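Suppose you are handed a protein chain with no further information: no name, no annotation, nothing but its sequence. What can you learn? This example shows the usual starting point.
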Amino acid sequence: MENKFTRLNKYLSEVGYCSRREADRLIEQGKITVNGILPEMGMKVCADDEIIVDGKRIQESNDKPIYLAFNKPVGIECTTNQTVRHNIVDYINYPKRIFPVGRLDKASEGLIFMTNDGDIVNKILRQKNNHEKEYIVTVDQPITDDFIKRMSGGIPILDTITKPCKVERVSKFVFRMFLTQGLNRQIRRMCDYLDYEVVALKRVRIINISLDVPVGQYRDITAEELAELNRLVEPSLKTEEASLDVTATAATDNDSTTTRPRKKFDREKTTFRDRDRAPKNERRSSRRGN
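A reasonable first move is to predict its three-dimensional structure. Written in structure tokens, the prediction is:
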């Protein structure tokens, strides 16, 4: 029987080592060898190849897939790079290797999935699927009807206009937001554009799974939740060309995962528009004619 060849980043994702985006980063940094040589991006491998990452050989595993719902605290970074202080892998300290599905901004808290199943990661993070994520956001000044209208209608950030979304006022300083996008620090940038500052941001739902554990804790995603999750993300296209871009590493503030069949994060642009670059106080002053 002939060996099945697949792209190196996809292989590492499928065996549960890391996301495709993380694999691409490791390739670029020269931390991976295949049969003793440094691979090029897009190289295809099979199970018989000797794949070494950071000095350790990577092989397929028959371990049962792991699916966790984790309530990330503020200050924890959604990266598998363990040289980064306060990385999510060291914080959870799970006995088996797992990685986050997408990202959640360091200054934000809330729900994020952790898994070793690269297949479901690919499905969830595909921007085209438009899966929904729900956030509770606290800002520094009273929320007006105009703020709700403009936030829900689309805001110009990162050289694009955000997609229309549902925004609900919860209280004087708190609103609820439902996103199907994963732009870099999207909610914070949108608020800043309207001269609001985010004081606290919490993701409370991704697709069909809601946040129900204390900060810093995790639980197993149930079989029923997983079955429904797979049903909702099933329309996702599984192609080798589809690369895990987010991850997240999509992060979004919102950062970045989702709910109903409506999401892979597009590779995030990092260039602000001229308006986004201007400090908030300067923008306010210019509007007052100062």
